[in-house]
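Example record used in the benchmark description.
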Amino acid sequence: MSPIRLAPPRWAQHVNFAACLIGIGTSLAFLGAAIDPEIRSWPIGLMGMTSLAVSIWAAIRSYGIHVLLDDTDMHIHGTFWSRHVPRDRITYISDVGEVEYKDPRGYSMTVHITWLMRAVDDDERFVLARLQRPWREAIATLRNWANVEGAI
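Model output (structure tokens):
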């Protein structure tokens, strides 16, 4: 079986990138305030540097967000972290991208696929529900691949 790659639509990745750019702009405003002779505040400068680093990291990783399904594992590549979950340990996949699985010791673990999170009814009469059709299809593909049920 060839790997299956699931990713948000390109327009959603652009929106995510734009949010990161807003974070970069806000960080630069903090840094500008920190070096202003009338303000000169190192806590503001530290906050600006930290948020700048996080925003740049998120902007770079925002285009690499995806889930890769191979024969044995689900590889989740998110904005801030990546994780893999063995296929045979997955017990449940919710409607909002929450994957429950058992770790090697048998404890129940949960991982959230953040780009699959949504809070809209699936009523196709509404614009937001139609826009989220790719997310519903991705969740259906995940459930089919893992051979698990969905919502309670």
